[in-house]
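Hi R.,

Quick one: here's the RCK N-terminal domain-containing protein sequence you asked about.
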Amino acid sequence: MKKRDSLGTRLRYGFDKSMAAGPIALIGWLAVLSLLIIIAAAGFLAVTRIAPEGGEPLNFFEAFWESLMRTLDSGTMGGDTGWAFRLVMLFVTLAGIFVVSALIGVLSAGVDSKLDELRKGRSRVLETDHTIILNWSPSIFDVISELVIANASRRRPRIVVMANMDKVEMEDEIAAKVGKLGNTRIICRSGDPTDLYDLAIVNPQTSRSVIVLSPDSDDPDSQVIKTVLALVNDPNRRTAPYNIAAEIRDGKNAEVARVVGGTEVQLVLADQLISRIVVHSSRQSGLSSVYSELLDFDGCEIYTAEQPDLIGKTFGEAVMAYEHCALIGLCDRNGRVYLNPSSNQVIRKGIRAIIIAEDDAAIKLGSTGIKIDAAAILGPRPVETKPERMLVLGWNRRGPIITYELSRYVAPGSTLTIAADTPGLEQEVAELPVAGDNLSVSCRVIDTSSSTALASLDVPSYDHVLVLGYSETMAAQPADTRTLVTLLHLRKIADDAGLHINVVSEMIDVRNRELAAVTKADDFVVSNRLVSLMLAQASENHHLAAIFDDLLDEKGSEIYMRPVADYVAIDQPLTFWTIAESARLRGEIAIGYRRIRAGEADQRALGGVTVNPLRAEALAYLPEDRIIVLARD
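And here's the predicted structure, written out as tokens:
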């Protein structure tokens, strides 16, 4: 009795285990059961020599075949004769009906389970050389749009998206907000990017690059860092390094992320990036269009490439060696970036050139002929700095960074007034860090969407006005709506005063920029879009994050927009060769211009900005036109 119970327990355990193993194991059990029934029936017929009435006795193999046919098709026994043979075949047929019915049920359940798994996005990705996007945020649509443009020349490009969302929901949102995907296919999977098992679903071992977005959660940076940690420390990871572009909101977490990701990760510090571009744009109207052009795959981009023909040349000579692209810096073997180095620096073997070009195929040394009007070149003039009065309307988490960045640029005696109605504003402003004592900061608690409150600030008396979105206390659309109302009030104030007010505004959603055009603000910085462009570019260019860190750092070379009349005489049309030479003689690099002409089409809505123009084309310039240069101060 004890042995029988033990055997029964083992049988039940084996069956339960097969049930847990899934449809394949159940099909195997049913096949074994069918085989046992067929063998038993065949053996019985062969031993007893029972045969159809009037027929010859069957051997084992013939009996096996007859039993198999009746197991698979119950109608086969309709032609049987002889009651002994009929009874044996009836038993085999009834057993077959049970087994086949169970088999159909198992197969149906297995197919349904597989379809449900596919719908949920839990099947493993089999693609290679694909781009992976982990986590979900409003930036994802712009990231995908840019990658679609970058993938236009590739064969069978794939983008794999994984987040803690329903697969169908992700696919529907992407289809609704991205538009045309060209030759790019989007594959969505549901899972936790911080989980090693779930990461294996998107097959990072064969990926081209990985983009880690900052999710909408209470602690997004921790989730990004944990995701990077899971990628680089996976026991089953590939030996070749990953190319990871990760978004970090708070710069204080950047050091931890760099320790975790090492050389495999490029960090896009979202708040620092947006804040610095807001500051630069507030001081130089149109500058955000320059950054958008450099980050947009649809225009000129920044490339790093070895240029053997430059070996032995000085950097100053190399700058004037390209006609269809602009050399702006060098990258050494360790990945260190040097923008606008000394003109006397000799380019050695192994040094990569940092170049602005429309396409990597356009990076070619040589020109059809350099045409420089030496007589039109003007020498540098001393620039007198004076104190500035600045006004910030609205407030969010980037406000402290913007304040600190402003304090690094302004002349002594400058003032900044912060006006908003966010909770705890006065206390936060009182504790704002500033660089040195060049800038004094004051606070006004007002409703920035009220025309009466704005009128009390004497807005026309300020040199620069910055409008920030209330992104910490409002959703994207309500925050942008309040920004639009503030801009409309500012426009009326300017019209009533008969003055031009220098206004730069932060927008959260790029779709609201067209609506804001009626406000006639000087510049718009679309925060989410800039971060998206940076992540997409960093996933394609291993050095881009370091290049933009240098571009936006006050200590290095920066992009400036300066009057063209400060560089050349504008009494006659000039080629860009002449302007480039004038800038080179000052230790600067001319990369473009801003010319606004009534009636001329601005198809890309860049406000007259042209980066990497045709150098041989002679153009007429006006005093209000600007030259875009890369300079140290």
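The longest strand covers residues 414-420.

Cheers,
M.
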